[in-house]
Write a structure and sequence with these properties.
The complex is a heterodimer. Chain A is an alpha/beta fold. Helices cover 34% and strands 17% of the residues of chain A. Chain B is 36% helix and 7% strand. Chain B is globular. The chains are: A alpha/beta, B alpha/beta.
């Protein structure tokens, strides 16, 4: 946690940290506008935009019709005008009706117009499971966005990172998809669903400066350091992996990617070359998931340093189930099995 | 559950719309109901949409088929402006003919003409303020000519040559010019509709005076983007003009495939509470008047307008289709609303401000200008002669700054350039060493 600013520090959960980032950016830049379903008077279904309309007015923070296609299309037009829109898509699972406006439009404006038009927008959207949301409130579609050219993909894992990354994202001139792991909005979930929920207040990364600060995009954070294993992960799974490593006393680097694209390949390479073993963990479905890209990169760059095959721990290639949520979720059991396998030789 | 004896009912039938005429048929539009000039009145721009619903089935007209202007919609333009309008229509037609031929000669990959529907872009461009933002579809090249975008730059783009300001990245005719308030054209249909609304909302939020205008074809009104745009425009009363160019054909699908058998395309605005009008799209003066009305309405916070331009696509969809394989040959010749160029010309001759000799002279001058410009453009290269941009440009502008993975891929392409494309290596390979 470098570049700690001087402003007073407050304990915040991830929602409060996101709210604080939005508040600061609305205050600093009149071109920042927030639009989305229920984000105005009500302040968002997860409260991320609470009190912002009250403070900045309806011109800056407003409710939209239930049309992700319309929200994202309008945001592209607002960006072309010169605004810096921050649309909220209520759940990542709802983003598909607006996908064309991201893939074919926002992601391509700079390229197709040779810099004549840009789409400086940050799409915030809660993603991931662990809240009994069933198949339409639990998905992790990040690899759809890393697979297309022209969009940056960010996934914070702590309140401190969420605020600093969101401020960087809003100031960035490229279109960004900012996935918020909703399972850890209120506390750093360790994957032990049968244990009491721990609040953010007990976690050091909940100490968040009240003022403006940025975390650079494309820089991973090594949240635990070790010599015997590299775990590459992001979002909720950072906490699940850290807990397993801690409880089982495994000597591992745990890398929180924070930004999937652009990816911090240097940190990954340095770590895997040091440890010789690599485990990739994400909640999303396995086939063609971002883990496949990570595994390929590690194989291409670190093959001769590897002492065991690269392992992946992921969600299953099924729709996200409701009642069987904890059978689906890549929790401590799946992680432990993979770690045992990779550490065996 | 209701018990019903269904045995006596006819079986269900799926209706697949079919156009009146196909190749080999004789086109006959005598059953097409077309209002006379002056029947559709001109309400105040402040009228509530609910009070003007009949206009979605009417037809705004100014010029009769002899070229005489009359009725409440006559914009009463000066001769000077009408001559400029004629000149723009003639210029874009000459440009289209030349570029179509260039594609046929293998100088580029693709082209789309706007023949027969020139009025639907030229007249609106003239009625709007120069800094009103336009979000065109792919057949509004007329706007750029009206706004003074250099024809040479259009041709450079069509040829993807070394002077192409879009660096050879886009299919021909997908222009972009923020300097001319002309949004970058997408090949995906109607994506520009909600974008135009967003731009208009931003303009209103910033208490600007500029409005937005956007275009799509009747076929792509079926896209979800069209309906999202309508919803957003009505919810936020956005200062935007929606143009539907109903040219009867979406590639080979007639307007019935988009719902045209049941209602006019203008009528799509009614359910949204949007002012919806229909205009004779081959009547440049009527199109001008309709746009002026809608622009004034938008600029005075009276909200969006949907304009259906009733016209006919005289040529194929693009250089990639042959219209004689799906529609009757002489449809355009029989189209009851004629040709916008001929109608405006007849109007000006009728006013005694124009004559056949001057017309022939102007046509020649424009054809010469287009030809001369084409020669200049071809000096910058043509697509048929290969790649005109540095390989590096392929990787630029994906992001503001190039990330490492694109940097690596760029290095790979530069290595390929040396091994595959350099003359030295080619010679070497040919020599077999």
């Amino acid at each position: 946690m470098s570049d700690m600013p001087d402003s007073p520090v407050k304990t915040m959960n991830m929602i409060e940290a996101i709210n604080s980032a939005l508040d600061i950016m609305l205050e600093r830049d009149d071109d920042v506008v927030i639009l989305g379903e229920d984000v105005g008077y009500f302040g968002g279904v997860f409260r991320a935009t609470a009190h912002l309309q009250e403070k900045y007015g309806k011109r800056r923070v407003f409710d939209t019709p239930i049309s992700e296609n319309g929200i994202l299309g309008a945001a592209v037009g607002m960006g072309a005008y010169g605004l810096r829109p921050v649309p909220e898509i209520q759940f990542a699972d709802y983003i598909y009706p607006g996908l064309d406006q991201i893939v074919s439009e926002a992601a391509r404006l700079r390229y197709r117009s040779a810099g004549d038009f840009i789409a400086p927008m940050t799409i915030r959207t809660p993603f991931g499971g662990g809240i009994f949301g069933g198949q339409t409130h639990s998905q992790s579609p990040e690899s759809l966005f890393t697979h297309m050219s022209g969009v940056k993909t960010i996934i914070p894992a702590t309140p401190y990172d969420a605020k600093g990354l969101l401020i960087s994202a809003i100031e960035d001139n490229d279109p960004i998809i900012f996935f918020e792991p909703k399972r850890i909005y209120n506390g750093p979930f360790t994957g032990y669903y049968d244990r009491p929920v721990e609040p953010w207040s007990k976690h050091s990364a909940a100490q968040v400066p009240e003022g403006y600060y940025k975390i650079p995009l494309g820089k991973a954070d090594v949240v635990q350091e070790g010599e015997g294993l590299t775990i590459i992960t992001y979002g909720t799974m950072v906490h699940v992996a850290s807990a397993v490593v801690e409880e089982q006393g495994i000597d591992a680097d745990v890398i929180d990617l924070r930004t999937l694209l652009p990816l911090d390949i240097e940190t990954i390479e340095e770590s895997v070359k040091k440890t010789g073993r690599c485990l990739i963990v994400h909640e999303a479905t396995r086939t063609s998931g971002f883990g496949a890209e990570l595994a390929a990169l590690v194989a291409e760059r670190c093959f001769y340093h590897l002492e065991a095959p690269i392992e992946r721990v992921t969600g299953f290639d099924t729709p996200y189930p409701h009642s069987l949520e904890w059978a689906y979720f890549p929790g401590p059991v799946r992680l432990t099995t993979a770690i045992e396998k990779i550490m065996k030789d | 559950m209701k018990k019903q004896n269904k045995q006596n009912l006819p079986r269900l039938h799926l209706h697949i719309p079919e156009p009146q005429f196909r190749p080999g048929d004789t086109a006959d539009f005598s059953n097409l109901e077309i209002e006379d000039v002056g029947v559709t009145g001109r309400p105040e721009e402040t009228i509530a949409p609910i009070d003007m619903q009949h206009m979605a089935t009417g037809l705004i007209r100014v010029l009769d088929m002899e070229g005489k202007a009359s009725g409440p919609w006559d914009p009463k333009l000066s001769t000077d402006i009408k001559l400029k309008m004629l000149r723009h229509i003639m210029k874009v037609r000459s440009f289209d003919d030349r570029m179509f031929r260039a594609q046929r000669q293998g100088k580029t990959s693709f082209y789309m003409k706007c023949t027969g529907e020139e009025a639907t872009s030229i007249a609106p461009a003239m009625a709007l303020a120069a800094d009103d933002m336009v979000f065109p579809s792919y057949r509004q090249q007329g706007i750029l000519l009206v706004r003074g975008y250099p024809m040479l730059d259009m041709m450079n783009q069509i040829y993807s040559n070394r002077e192409d300001s879009l660096k050879g990245r886009q299919l021909p005719i997908m222009y972009s010019s923020s300097d001319h308030s002309f949004f970058t054209i997408s090949g995906n249909l109607t994506t520009q509709y909600p974008q135009a609304v967003g731009w208009a909302m931003a303009s209103a939020a910033k208490q600007d005076s500029r409005i937005a205008a956007t275009w799509c074809g009747e076929g792509s009104t079926a896209e979800g983007d069209f309906h999202s745009a309508m919803t957003f425009a009505t919810v936020y009363n956005a200062p935007v003009i929606f143009n539907i160019v109903n040219n009867q054909w979406a590639i080979s699908s007639f307007s019935g495939i988009a719902g045209g058998e049941r209602a006019t395309f203008a009528a799509r605005g009614l359910g949204y509470g949007i002012a919806s009008i229909r205009v004779d799209g081959n009547d440049p003066l009527a199109v001008y008047a309709a746009t002026e009305w809608a622009a004034h309405r938008a600029r005075t916070n009276n909200g969006p307008t949907l304009i259906e331009h009733f016209t006919y696509r005289a040529e194929g969809h693009s250089t990639s289709d042959d219209p004689s394989s799906y529609r009757a040959a002489e449809e355009y010749a029989k189209w009851p609303l004629g040709d916008p160029l001929e109608r405006l010309k007849a109007h000006l001759i009728g006013e005694a401000t124009w004559d056949e000799d001057r017309h022939v002279a102007l046509k020649k001058a424009l054809d010469d200008e287009v030809k001369t410009t084409q020669k200049l453009a071809e000096k910058n290269g043509i697509l048929g002669h290969g790649m005109h941009q540095e390989f590096e440009t392929m990787f630029e502008d994906v992001f503001e700054e190039m990330p490492w993975h694109l940097q690596e891929q760029m290095d790979m392409s530069l290595a390929e350039k040396i091994s595959k494309f350099s003359t030295k290596n080619k010679e070497k390979m040919e020599r077999g060493s």
